[in-house]
Amino acid sequence: MGRHVGDSLRSLRRNGWMSLAAVSAVTVTLLLVGVFMALLLNVNRVTTQVENDVRVRVYIDANTTKADTAQLKGQLSALKDVKTVKYRSRAQELNAIVGDYGDQWKMFAGDKNPLQNVFLVDTASPKATMSVTKQAAKLDHVASASYGGQTAKRLFGAVDTVQNWGIGFTIVLLFVAVFLISNTIRITILSRSDEIGVMRLVGATNAYIRWPFLLEGAWTGLFGSLIPMAVVDAGYSVVYHSFGFTRAANGFSLFPTMPFLVWLDLALAGIGIIIGALGALISMRRFLRI
């Protein structure tokens, strides 16, 4: 195996320009794959958080007494699939808006506050929000009931579109990288045809002849993954630490840099090695008939 490793590295040096082209193709491919993976994994994380955070907002009639409000809370708590019911006054609602959008909204404090008192209802599952909303809207002293389902559905649809396009584009890039690697290995096989013939004559096994080419493809994929790992790690760290995405005002967050980046780097290295070895296998099958 030590001889095979040495042969594969020498072959990379001997075919310098083609090896560089193959490594560059893998680098560009894995850079885009790494960006897509980081994006899609975090989009899925935020989507899950949005789905779990969907809640029913039950707006209370303006003239409802405290006794009726307490009774309404009991009725909401008794509904099927309701997990918790939390009261929030119109003053608290305004404070939340001021915290999110700025002090200019303080002008509506006091009697100028146009907001309503509200019950925030968490359901046992996101799917139950629609039925709970419909039931809550029929109760006495309820002005209206709504939930973020429509926004969530639009978000989920956009996520599906991004995922489909991202996966399709990634597959195309991976095919291009495999094609370039297979061509590099093909040139190596052709340049060593005499050497391969001699090895056959002296009794070299098929595996002995094939291993250096397989390792050469794997090296190409591994070397091509180094720069994408560094770029993706640096870029993700900047985004995570500099733009306040670690804890957004709505409570959504990205994956922490550790151990997320470790697993992402391992995935990129693994993908690089796999597509490199696959390119070598394609060339060996077509141009190394043994």
TrEMBL record:
<dbReference type="GO" id="GO:0005886">
    <property type="term" value="C:plasma membrane"/>
</dbReference>
<keyword id="KW-1003">Cell membrane</keyword>
<comment type="similarity">
    <text>Belongs to the ABC-4 integral membrane protein family. FtsX subfamily.</text>
</comment>
<dbReference type="InterPro" id="IPR058204">
    <property type="entry name" value="FtsX_firmicutes-type"/>
</dbReference>
<feature type="domain" description="FtsX extracellular">
    <location>
        <begin position="54"/>
        <end position="143"/>
    </location>
</feature>
<feature type="transmembrane region" description="Helical">
    <location>
        <begin position="260"/>
        <end position="282"/>
    </location>
</feature>
<dbReference type="GO" id="GO:0051301">
    <property type="term" value="P:cell division"/>
</dbReference>
<dbReference type="InterPro" id="IPR004513">
    <property type="entry name" value="FtsX"/>
</dbReference>
<keyword id="KW-0132">Cell division</keyword>
<feature type="domain" description="ABC3 transporter permease C-terminal">
    <location>
        <begin position="168"/>
        <end position="286"/>
    </location>
</feature>
<keyword id="KW-0472">Membrane</keyword>
<dbReference type="InterPro" id="IPR003838">
    <property type="entry name" value="ABC3_permease_C"/>
</dbReference>
<dbReference type="InterPro" id="IPR040690">
    <property type="entry name" value="FtsX_ECD"/>
</dbReference>
<dbReference type="Pfam" id="PF18075">
    <property type="entry name" value="FtsX_ECD"/>
</dbReference>
<dbReference type="Pfam" id="PF02687">
    <property type="entry name" value="FtsX"/>
</dbReference>
<keyword id="KW-0812">Transmembrane</keyword>
<feature type="transmembrane region" description="Helical">
    <location>
        <begin position="165"/>
        <end position="185"/>
    </location>
</feature>
<comment type="function">
    <text>Part of the ABC transporter FtsEX involved in asymmetric cellular division facilitating the initiation of sporulation.</text>
</comment>
<feature type="transmembrane region" description="Helical">
    <location>
        <begin position="20"/>
        <end position="41"/>
    </location>
</feature>
<protein>
    <recommendedName>
        <fullName>Cell division protein FtsX</fullName>
    </recommendedName>
</protein>
<feature type="transmembrane region" description="Helical">
    <location>
        <begin position="218"/>
        <end position="240"/>
    </location>
</feature>
<keyword id="KW-0131">Cell cycle</keyword>
<keyword id="KW-1133">Transmembrane helix</keyword>
